[in-house]
Design goal:
Length: about 150
């Protein structure tokens, strides 16, 4: 699977760990930055291009990391076609995909440990949208908000 990843300074270290982890699992990774640690950078500069790549299908799914994960989630959800969520637990990591067709996982680099992040990433990437009628109906209502 082709996965996009992005982080600002608050998520840089965790992004680098996740990137290596994804590559070890044979995923193709497109890194939207930051390429180097810079404590003055801003998460929208990296998260928005990632979100646009998710929305366009350039990457199958995305992972965004900032200090708390909140800013990354807010920015990503401004891009039509993106369904991003800040995830802190295993259930939500897979359920968000299965029921809500989540396509961009947000994590907090200052609040999520590396091993926990790996488990969340696995649950997210292994999950598939169920396409149950009730879930599709709900997603259509959400999509109408983007117009």
């Amino acid at each position: 699977m082709k996965i996009g990843i992005a982080a600002d300074h608050g998520g840089f270290e965790l992004k680098e760990v996740i990137k290596t982890f994804l590559q070890s699992r044979q995923h193709e990774v497109k890194d939207f930055g930051a390429a180097v640690f810079n404590d003055k950078d801003d998460y929208p500069d990296f998260v928005v291009p990632l979100a646009q790549a998710v929305a366009s299908g350039e990457v199958a799914r995305g992972i965004a990391v900032c200090g708390s994960g909140v800013g990354a989630s807010i920015a990503a959800n401004k891009v039509a076609g993106v369904r991003a969520a800040l995830i802190n637990d295993h259930f939500s990591a897979h359920q968000g995909v299965e029921d809500d067709d989540m396509n961009l996982l947000c994590l907090g680099g200052r609040v999520t440990g590396t091993e926990a992040a790996k488990e969340l990433v696995i649950a997210y990437l292994d999950a598939k949208f169920t396409a149950a009628e009730r879930h599709q109906r709900r997603l259509e209502k959400v999509k109408r908000l983007e117009k």
